[in-house]
């Protein structure tokens, strides 16, 4: 018959309590068996840290001061490398990234930062003082980042060595009182203790436990100790190591990255040199000589749109067909660049991030001489392809008196015009179904000779004079492909050619730590899942001869945390071992010598499901 014992619970430090009170003998005995269920370092007092008597004289003061300084340093190091401080720093890092997402950043868009400062004259100085326009390169964010890095390393290194030591060691021997463990069962059997131990070893090793037969002096005798669930601590360490990999990858990416944008009109090309970029930014340790040598040409741009239904006008296809070559004399290769399908060349990625139309115009002077002919990219302002921009004739134009002048045209383009009298000028569809170009003309100085930077898509008319129509108003006209707008007084003309080209904007990036960041992120998820779902537990089996010569079998289990799975697993193990060492007849029931309890009782952990 089974012998059911009093249920007990195990505390976090491995000590057991019986009805809330621990006996000295049981606490000390279980402490050895329940120790090191995790790799968390034990907080012990360090000799020579704080305290102690101060000897008289200057030498005594120096010794005491040194001891106090070492004590404070050790205390601060223990605090910094504790898990709670690491979690706090990780939380602070997440909170610090919030203003970087809400407030315009100089490293991303300087124009937005300038506009924000103009619109918020009170907040802007405060934000500048706290480096909120440069969050990710600020002193306070870098300090949190470095402290988190140091904290994780200081936490992981000792835990790793401790875990390696546990892997190389043997499972701890059974405590003297197995009945004090959270899950426990016992029965009597006619099998010899050696047979029970051998069967237990075979059973536990078959269940992938690390099992060993240990001996103990005294009445307790030998026992089988088994342990399982090491991957829990391995996952915990794996998770924190992955965080370090992520931090290193982000740091390398921030310091050595480069990123730039380029608008390329169909038929034109790009060479990966600094002067070719429309805008460029890089990490503080990036060297422009490290730009990968390659070039590409935009051969054509393909697009298709939904023409019916509620999603009319939605893009279905965006594809930039390019010809590229690696190095100065590399062979030419063709490839299509699509959204989220970049061109990868020598560690650099070329992303397609935008597209639009570039109407081709020809400008002639009063004598019919061509002074300007180009495909002018215009910036879209809505999803239907409505675009605006400026056409600037800088050189070559002379008025009817032979005086050098500059011409400027405000341009408004729609790929699909609704028709005269059909509402506003905005496009009705993004495809080139009915293209119309609306122009307004000026002459004078464009202001490009002042040396100040100027937006190529905007026309500065402060030093220009408008061309007037017959009513004395600004000369405006809508023209179709192949049509011409005449300038008054024989000043010339501008023709909207039938050749309407496409343009595409590309982002060229070098992110040296991106692959390591991906590996770190995936590894962190795997390690976290292992640490959450794998249970670390220990099982002991002891078989000793009883007073009447019948073998008494005890089985007990201990886990890092209370769980219903531990008693269930122990019950399953006990049932299989019971088949090899069945219960002996109950001496209290001589009328039924063959009576035996087919399943031993297992006392469940307190709070577990019954």
Describe the structure in your own words.
The chain has helices at about 25-35, 55-80, 85-100, 110-120, 125-130, 140-170, 195-205, 230-255, 515-535, 565-580, and strands spanning about 10, 15, 185-190, 210-215, 225-230, 260-265, 270, 280, 295-305, 315-325, 335-340, 345, 350-365, 370-375, 380, 385-395, 405-415, 435-445, 465, 475-480, 485, 490-510, 535-545, 550-560. The protein is α+β, with helices and mostly antiparallel strands and about 600 residues long. The strands form 5 sheets. Strands 6, 8, 12, 13, 14, 21 and 22 form a 7-stranded antiparallel sheet that branches. It is elongated and about 130 Å long.
- Global shape: elongated
Strand tally is 24
Structural class: alpha+beta
Query: Helical content, roughly?
Result: 25-40%
Please, what is the oligomeric state? single chain
Largest sheet: 7 strands, antiparallel
pLDDT average, as an integer? 83
Number of helical stretches of at least 4 residues: 10
The radius of gyration over CA amounts to 40 Å
Low-pLDDT residue spans: 1-29, 43-49, 603-610
Distance between termini?
A: 21 Å
Portion in strands: 25-35%
What's the arrangement of secondary structure elements?
Elements: E1 9-10, E2 16-17, H1 24-34, H2 57-80, H3 83-102, H4 110-119, H5 123-129, H6 139-168, E3 183-189, H7 193-206, E4 210-214, E5 223-228, H8 230-256, E6 258-265, E7 269-271, E8 279-282, E9 294-305, E10 315-326, E11 333-338, E12 343-345, E13 348-364, E14 370-375, E15 379-380, E16 387-393, E17 406-414, E18 436-444, E19 464-466, E20 476-479, E21 484-487, E22 492-510, H9 514-533, E23 537-545, E24 551-559, H10 565-580
Antiparallel strand pairs: 1-2, 3-24, 4-5, 5-23, 6-8, 6-22, 7-9, 9-10, 10-11, 12-13, 13-14, 13-22, 15-16, 16-17, 17-18, 18-19, 18-20, 21-22, 23-24
């Amino acid at each position: 018959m089974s012998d059911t014992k009093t249920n007990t619970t195990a505390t976090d430090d491995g000590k057991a309590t019986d009805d809330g009170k621990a006996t000295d003998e049981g606490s000390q005995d279980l402490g050895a068996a329940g120790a090191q269920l995790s790799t968390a370092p034990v907080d012990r007092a360090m000799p020579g840290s704080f305290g102690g008597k101060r000897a008289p004289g200057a030498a005594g003061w120096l010794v005491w001061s040194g001891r106090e300084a070492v004590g404070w340093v050790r205390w601060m190091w223990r605090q910094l490398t504790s898990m709670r401080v690491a979690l706090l720093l990780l939380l602070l890092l997440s909170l610090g990234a919030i203003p970087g997402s809400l407030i315009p950043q100089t490293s991303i868009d300087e124009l937005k930062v300038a506009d924000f400062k103009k619109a918020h004259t009170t907040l802007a100085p405060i934000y500048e003082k706290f480096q909120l326009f440069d969050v990710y390169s600020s002193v306070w964010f870098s300090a949190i980042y470095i402290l988190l890095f140091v904290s994780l390393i200081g936490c992981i290194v000792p835990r790793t060595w401790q875990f390696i030591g546990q892997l190389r060691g043997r499972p701890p021997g059974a405590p003297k009182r197995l009945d004090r463990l959270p899950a426990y069962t016992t029965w009597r059997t006619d099998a010899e203790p050696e047979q029970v131990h051998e069967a237990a070893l075979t059973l536990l090793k078959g269940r992938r436990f690390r099992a060993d037969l240990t001996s103990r002096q005294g009445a307790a005798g030998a026992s089988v100790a088994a342990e399982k669930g090491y991957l829990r601590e391995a996952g915990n360490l794996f998770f924190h190591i992955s965080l370090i990999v992520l931090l290193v990858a982000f740091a390398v990416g921030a310091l050595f990255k480069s990123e730039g944008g380029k608008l390329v009109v169909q038929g034109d090309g790009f060479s990966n040199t600094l002067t070719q970029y429309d805008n460029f930014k890089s990490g503080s340790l990036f060297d422009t000589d490290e730009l990968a040598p390659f070039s590409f040409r935009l051969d054509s741009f393909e697009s298709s749109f939904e023409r019916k239904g509620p999603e009319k006008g939605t893009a279905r296809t965006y594809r930039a067909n390019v010809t590229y070559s690696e190095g100065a004399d590399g062979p030419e290769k063709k490839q299509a660049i699509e959204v989220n399908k970049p061109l990868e060349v020598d560690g650099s990625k070329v992303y397609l991030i935008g597209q639009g139309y570039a109407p081709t115009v020809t400008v002639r002077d009063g004598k019919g001489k061509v002074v300007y002919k180009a495909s002018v990219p215009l910036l879209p302002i809505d999803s239907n392809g409505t675009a605006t921009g400026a056409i600037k004739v800088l050189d070559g134009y002379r008025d009817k008196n032979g005086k050098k002048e500059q011409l400027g045209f405000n341009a408004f383009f729609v790929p699909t015009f609704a028709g005269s009298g059909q509402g506003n000028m905005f496009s009705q569809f993004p495809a080139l179904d009915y293209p119309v170009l609306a122009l307004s003309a000026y002459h004078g100085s464009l202001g490009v000779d002042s040396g100040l930077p100027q937006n190529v898509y905007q026309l500065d008319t402060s030093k220009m004079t408008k061309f007037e129509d017959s009513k004395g108003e600004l000369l405006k006209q809508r023209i179709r492909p192949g049509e011409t707008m005449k300038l008054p007084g024989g000043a010339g003309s501008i023709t909207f050619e039938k050749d309407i080209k496409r343009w595409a904007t590309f982002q060229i990036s070098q992110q040296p730590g991106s692959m390591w960041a991906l590996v770190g992120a995936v590894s962190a998820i795997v390690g976290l899942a292992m640490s959450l779902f794998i249970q670390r537990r220990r099982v002991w089996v002891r078989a000793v001869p009883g007073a009447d010569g019948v073998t008494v079998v005890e089985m007990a289990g201990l886990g890092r945390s209370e769980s219903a799975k531990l008693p269930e697993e122990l019950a399953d193990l006990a049932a299989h071992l019971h088949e090899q060492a069945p219960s002996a007849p109950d001496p209290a029931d001589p009328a039924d010598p063959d009576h035996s309890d087919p399943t031993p009782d297992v006392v469940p952990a307190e709070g577990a499901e019954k």
